[in-house]
């Protein structure tokens, strides 16, 4: 009876996680992150590859989080891997934020409110650079280290 209960709870947890993940990916698709990336990079003909990579990334991310799978890269490739991962994760988050802001039409409202006629791209780069400097300062001072 206890084994049946554990199987039921495991199945329910996996189903709930799958529903949440599907909702997140549907949200990303609705606000246009993926179509915008395909349009900007000129890779619309690789739609099946995009879908496969997105689903595989979601599944592998969930599995590695659930089972806490270590990635033994050693002291040489570890920092390089973390740097590449951080860069790509930052690019993705930036694309997500910009797609959401564009969907909500926030940038034109901001530029009108602060009376910005030209240079909106410099304001966006400045915000991103400030975020980058803040994150680097946070981690270099050891605030992100686990204790």
List the keywords.
mainly alpha; 6 helices; extended
Describe, in plain words, how this protein is organized in 3D.
The protein is mainly alpha-helical and 147 residues long. The protein has helices at 2-31, 33-41, 47-67, 74-103, 106-113, 120-140. The protein is extended and about 70 Å long. The relative contact order is 0.05.
List unreliable stretches of 5+ residues.
none
The largest pleated sheet is described as: none
Number of strands: 0
List SSEs in N-to-C order. HHHHHH
The share of residues in helices is: over 70%
* Overall outline: extended
Average pLDDT confidence is: 78
Question: Class by helix and strand content?
Answer: mainly alpha
**Alpha carbon gyration radius:** 20 Å
Layout of helices and strands, plus pairs?
Elements: H1 2-31, H2 33-41, H3 47-67, H4 74-103, H5 106-113, H6 120-140
Short description:
This protein has 147 residues and is mostly helical. It is 81% helix and 0% strand.
């Amino acid at each position: 009876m206890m084994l049946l209960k554990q199987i039921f709870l495991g199945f329910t947890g996996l189903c709930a996680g799958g529903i949440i993940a599907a909702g997140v990916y549907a949200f990303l698709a609705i606000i246009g992150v993926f179509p915008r990336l395909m349009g900007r990079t000129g890779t619309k003909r690789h739609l099946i590859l995009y879908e496969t990579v997105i689903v595989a990334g979601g599944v592998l991310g969930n599995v590695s989080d659930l089972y806490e799978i270590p990635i033994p890269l050693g002291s040489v490739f570890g920092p390089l891997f973390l740097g590449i991962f951080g860069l790509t994760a930052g690019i993705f988050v930036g694309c997500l934020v910009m797609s959401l802001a564009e969907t909500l039409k926030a940038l034109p409202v901001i530029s009108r409110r602060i009376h910005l006629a030209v240079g909106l791209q410099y304001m966006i780069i400045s915000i991103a650079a400030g975020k980058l400097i803040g994150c680097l300062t946070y981690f270099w001072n050891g605030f992100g280290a686990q204790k």
